[in-house]
Amino acid sequence: MDPIIILHAGLATGTILLFASIGEIFTERAGILNLGVEGMMLMGAMAGFSISLATNAWWLGLVVAILSGGILGLVHAVVTIHFQAEQVISGLALTFLGTGLALALGTGLTGQTPPLVPSFDIPGLALIPIIGPIFFEDHSLLVYVGYVFTPLAWYYINKTRPGMHLRAIGEKPEAADTMGISVYRLRYFYVFVGGCLAGLAGATISLSISPGWFSTLTTNGVGWIAIGLVIFAQWDPVRAAIGGYLFGAIRRGILDLQGPPTLFGLTNPLFINANFIFFLQMAPFILTIIALIWGSQAAARKRIGAPAALGIPYIRGERGL
Amino acid sequence: MSTPATTGGKGGVQLPYTLSFEKRVEDIPKWLPVATALGSVVLAFLIAGIILGLIGGEPLKAGTFFFNATFGSWAVFSDTLVKATPLIMIGLGLIVAFKMKLWNIGAEGQFYIGAFAASLVVLVPLVPEGSPKVVVIGAMMIMGLIGGAIWGFVPGYLKGRFQVNEIITSLMLNFVAISWNNFWIFNTWSDAGFQMTPTFDHSAWLPRVTDYARPYGEFIETSTSPLVGFLRSIGLERISGMTLHLGVFFGLLAAVIVWWILARSRWGYEIKLIGDNPQAARYAGINIVRNIVLVMMFSGALAGLAGMSEITGVVHRLQERISPGYGFTGIIVAFLAKMHPFNVILVSILFGALIVAGRELQPSGLSLMLQGIILFIVVSSDILLRYRIRLLRTVKAGT
Q1: Nearest-CA neighbor of A94 among A219, A195, A213?
Q2: Is residue B49 in some structural domain?
Q3: Residue B257 CB: number of other CB atoms within 10 A?
Q4: Nearest chain A CA: its distance from B229 CA (Å)
Q5: B90 contacts chain A (CB < 8 A)
Q6: How many C-beta atoms lie closer than 10 Å to residue A143's C-beta?
Q7: Is residue B286 part of a domain?
Q8: B396 inside domain
Q9: Residue numbers in A near B169 (CB within 8 A)
Q10: pLDDT tens digits, one per residue of A16-55
Q11: Contact between A92 and A36 (Cβ < 8 Å)
């Protein structure tokens, strides 16, 4: 139960959630709800793994993973933007499609070991007491990418002109349209971006944090947790990252609970009965629910919430939402 | 609205006709939803066949295998119906929720908890040992409904009271339900350390067609009555091995009840109004929060009943794997049935077939892919209900 190890692991696992959540934040800020994150992530995990195996280059695996997530996302984009279909259901369909496709194409990948994303220390920074070992020692490249990506995403959304357009098409697309912003095209773009990031998150699992291909167990619900995290983070990338890291740390902490015979002076329940582990398995999901309750309450209190046009198809020429 | 479209000519090929999407103002023709549903399935099978061909499978072989494995004989058709039974109940429950725009993605978990609650009757036990079958099955049905209702209550209450998104809460509870069941299966009720409870006593078994093979088998094979002769002539010669069970009647009864609720009752009217126009519902004084909770409980209860039906009719015990994703397939069933209770029965049979065939169809994941494609097409086809496509003549600008 070493706090440094727990926090370190939290940063690693949290990076997965970070990419997926920020991707979904981009998509939802543009006004499109994409529930297919789990499918896109699994596809990215499979694609990254198999391409890395085939080409012996982990970075190619990452590229293909990103693209495959993005392309899958485009299916959802066409259906929701052009056909104006119900976004909740289209997202679910994407989850089925992505999961099924990943399973179908991924047969035979279990047990293989392709080249993985390298892990390393950041020289100098790793020497800072306490902070160093947690943040800068022996982390995957993708974790460091996450450190940089998060503030960049925040800056893009909040401080740049394209970011303003993004927020506009999610809040009041009619107004954006009259300003000459192409709502359809931008929405397509951001759904694609969200898909790419979900694919990257999937590859982060299979090529880095939990290397391997374990069919549906590779992601095991993480995509859904990422969607919940978006609400908890109130659609802000920095909060999403922090939430993701926290979640990862708690998850690792719970795992470590199984080790010691005594916990805070009391006998560890898992030593009494190993089957209590099933309650530990519930923990991430119950935590997500609690985080959602908290997030919804906070949003209601501050009177901010989802982007106003989230989930509503934009139909040019129809006035009023 | 039939002015000819003009195309600004900038050179290049000009087609004499162009497609125009116009919003429908008149009522949808009755045949259109059915046609789009059927067309969606056909198109989805075609697309899946193409994808299968592209990734190295054999679509035609898979297609004939699919048909033979699901509808080729009475025995396999019985298997198909067995797999369709829970889908009917879950699909019906989901229709009620979806009509109110309540996205219950937790039917899978409600199924598991319903199975758990029904098992309590036998494993605690909640009725005295040796009670007649009617009592045991009846108690299990009630417990199944209660278990599913409780599991539906949680996301419903969270949504009504705290405006928490029910999609994620109900989905998270799926995982919780499976872990919950697993604890009891592996731990307290484990059968000699195996990952399942001991087989239930026969008083807890739903009657199956095959149960009547011994007493009536010879009768069916030799009787000269015209009805039995007819059945023999269409291939129904032996009924042993047909695992079709009473659960299918639960489904049929539920279809009638749900139809009545939605089409003829005041509650159904409220549900539909809340779904279509929440503001109008509020002005009409309808208590939306209460309906959210009630509808989620109702939806969960039906899924819980499906869970009870599956364990008492099929495996006769509580075990780890009791659902190949019924809760999720049910979502597609509800949509493909265009939210109509009686259509659910037919659609469930189709998806029951997909599940039966999916067990052996290679590569794995194909069935899931097919379901995703079907759902995509069905949900996209809704646009055809809102817009008309018309072919318009184009004239050169300026004439």
Answers
A1: A195
A2: no
A3: 14
A4: 45
A5: no
A6: 25
A7: yes
A8: no
A9: 289, 292
A10: 999 999 999 999 999 999 999 999 999 999 999 999 999 9
A11: yes
Beta bridge partners of B20: B390
Side chain identity, residue A303: R
What is the DSSP-derived secondary structure letter of residue A108? T
Q: What are phi and psi of B396, to 5 degrees?
A: -65, 140
Q: Which two tokens stand for residue B12?
A: 């290049």
User: Residue for token digits 């058709």?
Assistant: B77
Close Cβ partners of B36 (under 8 Å, ≥ 6 residues apart) = B378, B381, B382, B384, B385
Residue B138 lies in domain: 58-208+243-361
Whether chain B has a CB inside 8 Å of the CB on A275: the answer is yes
Cis bond upstream, residue B16 (ω within 30): no
Cross-chain Cβ contact B365/A275 below 8 Å: no
Q: Assign a CATH topology to domain A3-302.
A: ABC transporter involved in vitamin B12 uptake, BtuC (1.10.3470)
With beta carbons under 8 A apart, name residues in chain A contacting B366.
100, 104
Q: Does A67 touch chain B (CB under 8 A)?
A: no
B156-170 burial string, b = 16+ CB within 10 Å, else e?
bbbbbebebbbbbbb
Question: Per the structure block, which two tokens stand in for B205?
Answer: 């078994």
Q: What is the CATH number of the domain that holds B148?
A: 1.10.3470
Contact A18, A197 (CB under 8 A): no
- Sorted by where each begins, the domain ranges of chain A are 3-302
Q: For residue B18, is it within any domain? A: no
Q: pLDDT over 70 for what percent of chain A?
A: 93
Max CA pair span of chain A: 67
pLDDT tens column, B9-25: 444 566 676 767 777 77
Closest residue by Cα to residue B335 from B13, B113, B15, B37? B37
Q: Do A58 and A116 contact (CB within 8 A), yes or no?
A: yes
Select from A36, A182, A119 the least CA-distant residue to B105: A36
Which tens digits make up the pLDDT trace of A154-210? 999 999 999 999 999 999 999 999 999 999 999 999 999 999 999 999 999 999 988
Q: Tell me which residue has tokens 């129809």.
A: A318
ipTM: 0.85
- The full length of chain B comes to 399
Contact B169 A300 (CB under 8 A): no
pTM: 0.87
Domain count, chain B: 1
